Amino acid sequence: MEDAVLDDYARCAAEIAREAGAILRDRFDQPHEIRFKGAIDMVTEADQAAEALIAGRLRERFPDHDLLGEEGARGAAGDARFRWDIDPLDGTTNFAHGLPTFAVSIGLEEDGALVCGTVYDPMRDELFVARRGGGATLNGAPIHVSATDTLLASLLVTGFSYDLAQRDQQARIWRDFLTRVQAIRQTGSSALNLCYIAAGRLDGYWERGISPWDVAAGALMVMEAGGAVTDLRGGPFRADDRQILASNGALHEQLLAVIAPYQTQDAATAGVTLGA
What is the CATH number of the domain that holds 112? Predict the structure, then answer.
C-alpha cells in the first residue's frame, strides 16, 4: 500500500478519534447510565455514543472495510481485506468512577497486519498516531521508546482480568516483577499503556486476556517508536491472540525470562478481558 493512502487512513482515524473524544470529555462530569457485561465489566452510555459515531464515520468513508467494535459495531463481511479495531472508551471503569485516564483507540489491519493506529486522550488532549513505516507521533511530534536497559531501573505497567478467577495467577507474575523493578503501574487503559511505552514514559507492559480493540492501535505505536511487541512467549504478535508483551526492546528478553515460567497454562483457559 502506498504511503499516501496510509497517511489518509491515519488522518481519517485521527479526526474521528477527536470527535469521539469530545463526546467522552463532554459527558465525563455527568451522571452515567451503567450496565454490566460481566460481574465487574461495565459499559456506559458514553461508550455506546462514541462507538456509534466512530462506526458511522468509518462505514460512510470505507463501506467495504470490516469493523470490530467493543460494543458490537460491525462492518462489511468478515473476509474483508481491511478491519478497523475500535475501542470507543478504553478505560470505562476509570471513566465511570470519575478518574480522568481513558482514551479512544482506533487501529487498522490489512490482512491481519497492523497498518495504522490512533489513540486519543481527550482529557489531556494527547493524540498519538502511527502508520506502518512512518513512525509514531504525539500531537504531531515524533516519539521514541526509552533507553532503559535494566529491570531495576524500569517502570512497568500491567492490567488484570475481569475474570476474577484468573487474577491469582496474574498477581503471581506481578509479585515476581515487583522485587525486580523500580515500580509497576496499572493505568486501567491498555491503549494508553502502549502509547506511554512508545513515548518513553513507561518501559514495558504485559497482559493476557486483552481484545484486539484494546491493543491494535497501541501495539503499532510501540513498533513504530522503536520498541518490541510479541506474545507472552516471545512469538509474533497478533491482535486476535488475546495476549501481549510490549517493551522498549532493550528490556524484552529480560521481561520474557520472568514471565516464561508462568506460561504453562493454555491461553484459551487463561481468562478474558473485554476492554478496560
Answer: 3.30.540.10
As beta bridge partners, residue 183 has 155
User: How is the beta sheet containing 155-158 ordered, strand by strand?
Assistant: 183-185, 155-158, 204-208, 243-247, 228-230
Rounded CA separation 14/6 (Å): 12
* Listed residues 108, 142, 176: the one ending a domain: 142
163-199: pLDDT as tens digits: 666 777 788 888 999 999 999 999 999 999 999 999 9
pLDDT, tens digit, for every residue of 12-55? 999 999 999 999 999 998 756 666 655 444 578 898 999 999 99
Residue 60: which residues within 8 A CB-CB, separation 6 or more? none
Q: Is 75 a member of any domain? A: yes
Q: How many independent structural domains does the chain possess?
A: 2
Instruction: Tell me the residue range of the domain where 11 lies.
Output: 3-142
